[in-house]
Amino acid sequence: MATIFTRIAKGEIPSYKVAEDDDFYAFLDINPLTEGHTLVIPKNTEADYIFDLDEHTYEGLTKFAAKVAKAIKKAVPCKRVGVAVLGMEVPHTHIHLIPLQSESDMDFKKERVKMSEADFAKTANEILRNFELL
Ligand code: AMP
Predict the structure, then answer these.
(1) What is the pLDDT of residues 7-39, one digit of tens each?
(2) For burial by CB atoms within 10 Å, which of 50, 89, 104, 108 has the most?
(3) Entry pTM
(4) Is 94 a catalytic residue?
(5) Which residues constitute the catalytic centre (predicted)?
C-alpha cells in the first residue's frame, strides 16, 4: 500500500504544496514547529530511510531541498533554515526544513504552532512563488 506521503505527492490527499518537479515534492508540515516548516520527499521511491536511497535520488533530493530552503528563507522571516531527518512517524524518506529564529525552534518536543487554513495557504503560496523565481 502507498505511503501517506506518496498519496500526498499524487494529489490523492491534500497538502499545501511549496515546490515540485518530476522527482521531488515539498509541502508544509501540518503540525509545524514554526511557520513555514516544510517536508521534502522523493516521489518515485518509498524508501523509509534517507541513507538507503540510491545515490542519484539522494543527491537529487538534497539538491532540491537546498533550493526549497532558499525559497523558504526569502518567503519567511528567519535567521536560518534548519534541516532535520527523523522519520519516527512516517516511513517514507523526508527532510524537514524549519525556519529558525533560535536553536529552540528545532526542539521536536515543543508545542507546535497553530495555523489556520488561510495561514497555511498564504505561507505555501509565498514559498512557491519564490521557488519559481529561483
Ligand atoms: P517524522 O516521521 O518523525 O519525521 O514526522 C513526520 C512529520 O510529518 C511530522 O512532523 C508530522 O506533523 C508530519 N505529517 C504527518 N502527516 C502529514 C500530512 N498529512 N501532511 C503534512 N504533514 C504531515
Answers:
(1) 999 999 999 999 999 999 999 999 999 999 999
(2) 50
(3) 0.98
(4) yes
(5) 94 (tele-amp-histidine intermediate)
